Structure formats: C-alpha cells, structure tokens
Amino acid sequence: MSTVPASPDSADAQALVLVAEDEPEIAEILQAYLRRAGLRTAHAPDGQRALDMHLSMKPDLVLLDVQMPKRDGWQVLAEIRHRGQTPVIMLTAMDQDIDKLMGLRSGADDYVVKPFNTAEVVARTQAVLRRAMAQTQVQARVLRVPPFEIDLDQHEALVHLDGITHALSLTLTEFRLLTHLARAPRRVHTRAELLAACLPEGDALERTVDSHISKLRRKLESLGVEGTPLGIRGVGYRLWGAE
Q1: 3-state secondary structure of 150
Q2: Is 42 helix (H, G, I), strand (E, B) or coil?
Q3: What's the alpha-carbon Rg for the chain, to the nearest Å?
Q4: Helix 206-221 to helix 172-183 angle, to the nearest 10 degrees?
Q5: What is the CATH number of domain 16-139?
Q6: CATH classification of 142-238 is 1.10.10.10, yes or no?
Q7: How far is it, in rounded angstroms, from Cα 79 to Cα 72?
Q8: Distance (Å, whole) CA 10 – CA 43
C-alpha cells in the first residue's frame, strides 16, 4: 500500500469530498488519504444516500463508485448533473474504453479504474477541485448577494425584489461601495477601508464615505430595500446585519 501523502498547503484545503462507495474498506482508505491531504470527507454507502447527502451537504466534489446498491453510479451522476455542476470523479472496476466514454459523456470530470493507487486518486481530486475553483472565479465576475446581482464587467447592478428586476442607477463611487460591501456582506468594513478601496483617486475625507453611503441607501430605499448598508457606530458599514 502507498504511503499516505503529506498534507499540502493548497487552495483546495478544507473542500468537502463526498465518497460514494459501498465497500467500507475502500471508503475508509480513501477518506484517510483525503483527510491527510487537508480535505474534509463524508461517506455515502449507497446511491440513494449519496444523492441525499449531496442535496443536504453540498459537497465540493463527489468520488462516485459505479456499482452501488439502490442507485448505481450512472443514475447518481445523472441526477447530480440535473441539479448542477458539482465535480464528479467516477470509480469503477470496469476498464473498457466504452465505459470510460459513457462516464465522460454523462458529465463526469474524471474517471479512475479499480484497483487504483489511492495517492493518485487524491492528486486527481485536487486537480479537479483546482479546475472547478478557477472556473468559479471566472464566473464570480457576477456577484449574486440577494436581492442584488452585480455584473462587474458590464458595470451593472440589479435588484430582484418581489419577482421584479430593477436596474440601479449608481455613480461610479456608489457602484464601488456596493460591490465592496457585497463581497463580504456580513463583515464590518471601516470607513478608512472603504475610502481606500472605493475613492482612491483624491484626498477625500472619511466623512465623504458617509455621504456616498447615504445616497446609496436612499436609492435602495426608493426600490423597497430597507436597512442597507447598515451603519455600525464608530466603525463603518456592512451590507447586512449579523447572523
């Protein structure tokens, strides 16, 4: 058996991997290697449980055995793809090309044949997670923090409220402030931070931030969005209140 790899300092650390595998020994070994690599794990012993856990836990990646009870891997993969784009790596004892093609054409991100080198499975898992993360970062050019949708490339801010979409007419500074707050909507942003990030061109004073925030708040209130940005006395602002 291969030596368990050392834990790396990687961008995919703390991602949650759902191991859908009906053989307890294989599942245990996979989880041990994944945890040693800095990943969190959960185990589903059959296809139906895998779908239930995918829905409730929203894992970052699924290691999916093909031959499982209740629902096989192809059925699970089809349902996961119906729900979204969670990365999936298929695990199977079938090594014929037609089986591999079936998995990839069904939307699998990678394919590993048993018996496999567990360290290689971990490496492939990390590679798929990195690709998924890079794709997410590209897609993140649109920030979605309900009721706001902020398109950074089009420089457009929308408010979705009661089934109606409103376009916000914002100044450059107001757009920057809303975007900055939306990136971490429950964190308190100091006036000095907002000044440096959103009004970098001149020698504006911190009280200038208050003026721009006030104008932004009035525009939001006119659309029915109340209480945001929220002022924190003596500190600064956050988009929403504490959880």
Answers
A1: strand
A2: strand
A3: 23
A4: 90
A5: 3.40.50.2300
A6: yes
A7: 11
A8: 23
187 in Cβ contact with 231 (< 8 Å): no
Q: What residue has token string 């209740």?
A: 70
Per DSSP, the three-state class of 70 is coil
- Residue-wise pLDDT tens digits, 99-137: 666 666 678 888 888 888 999 999 999 999 988 877 766
DSSP-derived 3-state class of residue 27: helix
Give the separation between CA 68 and CA 80, rounded to whole angstroms. Answer: 16
Cis amide bond preceding 87, omega within 30: no
* pTM: predicted TM-score of the whole model, two decimal places: 0.54
Chain segment 132-174, per-residue pLDDT in tens:
877 766 555 788 888 999 998 889 999 999 889 999 999 999 9
Sheet holding 189-190, edge to edge: 189-190, 236-238, 230-232
Q: CB 88: neighbour CB atoms within 10 A?
A: 26
5 pLDDT more than 60: no
Q: Which of 14, 15, 43 is nearest to 31 (CA)?
A: 43
The three state secondary structure string of 47-116 is HHHHHHHHHHHCCCEEEEECCCCCCCHHHHHHHHHHHCCCCEEEEECCCCHHHHHHHHHCCCCEEEECCC
Residue spans of the domains in the chain: they are: 16-139, 142-238
In this structure, which amino acid lies at residue 243? E
What is the crossing angle of helices 47-57 and 73-83, to 10°?
A: 20
**With the C-alpha atoms ordered 183, 186, 190, 195, is the resulting torsion angle positive or negative?**
positive
What one-letter code names the amino acid at 178? L
Binned at pLDDT 50, 70 and 90, residue 11 comes out as: very low
SS3 of residue 135 by DSSP: helix
**Do strands 16-20 and 61-65 pair parallel, antiparallel, or not at all (unpaired)?**
parallel
